Amino acid sequence: MFNDRSTPLSLLQTRRSGKPRDMGAPGPSLTQIEDMVAIAARTPDHGKLAPWRFVIVPDDQRPALALALVEILRAEKPDATARDEEAAAQFVTQAPGLVVVLSAPVIGHKVPVWEQELSAGAACMNLLHAAHAMGFVGGWLTGWAAYSDAVRDLFGAAPQRIAGFMFLGSPQRDLEERPRGDLSAIVQHWRGGAGPSD
Length: 198
Hints:
- The protein is built from 7 helices and 7 strands.
- It is of the alpha+beta class.
- The longest helix has 21 residues, at 113-133.
């Protein structure tokens, strides 16, 4: 059964991402989102650096963010069409909840930036698990906005980078299981100096 939250193991086995455009009310309350973020922050963090930031975008601020994205799109892509602008505006308004997660590495620290970036990715995954555990669905998107310095500057500053736009809500249609990788193709057993083998 998909989305079974009856045990911790079934919770992990049935978590499924939802498409933000297919999310609707009820969405998580601000308090629930803050609880999700607190859970997301309980992620592996070599050096206790907290190399990530969470920016909760309240519903009443979503129109202002949509306008900002359209302005940035016009500046960065002069050939953008009206349809492109509409898509940019709808991007941040398509689900009830939105948290922007930033990778915020501590440059020059003995912990490599790569490990800090992995921690930011783990924080995003923890946020999705928290949403699922609380009865909601989450979707992790990037797209052009995640790679725009101007969009990043709405939430933070270099060397920070947007790790993901995390959309939260309730599914408006049944979540379908997607094909998963064949474990025999992605799992190997190491056999000493000879390297991994099947």
